[in-house]
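TICKET: design request
STATUS: open
ATTACHED STRUCTURE:
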């Protein structure tokens, strides 16, 4: 199967595919999605969500700018408002050269976030407060974790993964120190029963993150 769906709490789901993990919140108003995997996976993500609800997809939040998390952005653009850290938009527009020195290819305009932020930001949807929380530059310099405090769920992107080792993307503002600081921030936001959706791998919790 290309996808595996896991219901977490109160309309929040984790969706596993070939790229980074996707999270989404379903409610009476609309759907908020976190991350879009690769371009070829995005139509399947939309299909999976439509299998859960007939409500429209209204927002897409990016945890950072890597292609396995934002590759499907342009698929969502006609139906959703794309939201991300200021640096995600910058990195997509002006990618650094690759390891071989070749210039990076800028993202198509349709893939760019249309609302960006650099400080803690809140969305209010489906009766929930959704917190968009920038964390220290760790995996990249545009890392954001998404907290659903009313549902005790955190979606954290790639500064935390439950498979493989953490990666600090040094060419895009990442650092090991930043990953450690980001983990500390997530731990301080999590309670003993908080479900934590990592960037890759199965859903986890605070004790496992520590």
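STATUS: resolved
RESOLUTION: sequence designed for all positions
ATTACHED SEQUENCE:
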């Amino acid at each position: 199967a290309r996808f595996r769906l896991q219901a977490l709490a109160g309309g929040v789901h984790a969706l596993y595919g070939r790229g980074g993990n996707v999270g989404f919140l379903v409610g009476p108003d609309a759907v908020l999605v976190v991350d879009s995997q690769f371009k070829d996976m995005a139509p399947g993500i939309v299909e999976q969500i439509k299998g859960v609800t007939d409500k429209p997809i209204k927002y897409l939040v990016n945890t950072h700018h890597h292609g396995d998390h934002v590759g499907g952005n342009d698929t969502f653009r006609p139906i959703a408002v794309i939201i991300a850290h200021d640096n995600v938009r910058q990195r997509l527009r002006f990618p650094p050269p690759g390891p071989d020195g070749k210039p990076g290819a800028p993202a198509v305009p349709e893939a760019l976030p249309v609302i960006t932020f650099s400080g803690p930001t809140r969305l209010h949807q489906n009766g929930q407060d959704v917190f968009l929380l920038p964390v220290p530059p760790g995996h990249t310099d545009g890392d954001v974790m998404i907290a659903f405090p009313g549902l005790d769920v955190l979606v954290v992107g790639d500064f935390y993964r439950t498979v493989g080792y953490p990666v600090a993307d040094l060419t895009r503002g990442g650092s090991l120190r930043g990953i450690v600081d980001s983990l500390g921030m997530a731990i301080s936001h999590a309670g003993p029963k908080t479900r934590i959706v990592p960037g890759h791998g199965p859903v986890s919790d605070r004790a496992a993150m520590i």
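CLOSING REMARK: Residues 73 and 111 are 5 Å apart (CA to CA). The longest helix spans residues 176-189.
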